[in-house]
Amino acid sequence: MTETGAAPAPLGRRERKKAATRQAIADAALDLFLERGYDDVSIREIADAADVSTTTLFKHFSGKEALVFDRQDEMKAHQLAVVRERPRGQSIPVALREHALRYRQINPDDEPEAAAFLDLVGRTPALLDYQHAAWLENTTALARIIAEDSGLPADDPACTALAHFALEAPRAARHHQDRAEAITRAFDLLEQGWQSITSGTHKP
Amino acid sequence: MTETGAAPAPLGRRERKKAATRQAIADAALDLFLERGYDDVSIREIADAADVSTTTLFKHFSGKEALVFDRQDEMKAHQLAVVRERPRGQSIPVALREHALRYRQINPDDEPEAAAFLDLVGRTPALLDYQHAAWLENTTALARIIAEDSGLPADDPACTALAHFALEAPRAARHHQDRAEAITRAFDLLEQGWQSITSGTHKP
DNA sequence: AAAATAAGTGCAACCGATGCACTTTTGAAA
DNA sequence: TTTCAAAAGTGCATCGGTTGCACTTATTTT
């Protein structure tokens, strides 16, 4: 009753509690994962650590992988923003390339949390797959942006192809020692092809 | 006692029985899958139908998906062969494109079994993912062929990128009504890019 | 105050998969 | 032939992820 303030947003007590529970679960999960590795932590353990039942856990998260990528939505939005707000004159493939390269460049001394997180994902195949699948969900949105930008029809298959390949580029570079260079070369291929398609060749 | 012949190949009784068991399992699995759908058939049912234990089943197949793609090895080999034995003068991307297009063109009236199989795979996400992963395992081999053919170093990232993207092309075309056209356009992008890379830039 | 809503609980169960100890078959050596 | 070791197969128990169901709370609405 005496609690007056603390209601800046239109969030009822209920929704706040829900959010808190969700956060508690995600935090507990990430702690355990970082400490012992993804595969060596069970759902039951996480639920115990967060002091909820496994049933409750699965009402908040669609699966085990989703516990790790709690904020994947933000990353996806960020990726699209990078393309939309790219410097004038910069091509879309280049913007995507820069984004891909930047993502891999986090300094362990600078951002230890982010580094540990990336490491966790990087050494867990299940997480790599999940992340990549989520990544690809941006294909359609990205294709639309490309189409708008180049004046092609919104459903032009070439736009989808470029979007898909660009999102796939980091994976294509996976097995090379120098990943950054491999990514660059993959994007070179795409950019050259894209130039040919959008400029010349159409009508001889 | 009266069984005299029937040992033309260097296959002992043992290996024949093993192969028979494996085949029985795969057949039972495919029958059930086609009849009721992949997700609605359990491993235990398949094992029962083939009259073996689940333990035995898993000694023959690495997982549930592997029951469906019993002959994936042949398909992979075939794919590489298509590239190696392509008509003189035909580029590698074109050979891959033709192969990709041909794979999708099976006439239900002509090859009902193959059609039913493709349909089963096509409507089961788990199987699509598994198939695609197996598909991508050809990336390295394909990259090597591309490198040899174009005189680039065997580990040139551009070759890996082209191989990866080409294998990815069918997926990029997934959401278009006219899949064949979408695949063609995706390969156009790759081919143009590849030409630019291999013709120009080498040594000015 | 009562009814409607939604969070959370507890439990049992299913499914894919694995490990272990055990029996049977089979190929070949003794 | 007898014997022996490897390999195939079995049975069972168990694990971890996931879901369904019936049930108790807490909060919101009427």
Automatic annotation (TrEMBL), chains A, B:
Residue spans binding DNA: 42-61
Source organism, top-level taxon: Bacteria
Residues spanning the signal sequence: none
Transcription regulation listed as a keyword: yes
Keywords: DNA-binding, Transcription, Transcription regulation
Domain HTH tetR-type: 19-79
Molecular function terms, GO-annotated: DNA-binding transcription factor activity; transcription cis-regulatory region binding
PANTHER family recorded: HTH-TYPE TRANSCRIPTIONAL REGULATOR BETI (PTHR30055:SF234), HTH-TYPE TRANSCRIPTIONAL REGULATOR RUTR (PTHR30055)
Name of the protein in question: TetR family transcriptional regulator
Organism, scientific name: Embleya hyalina
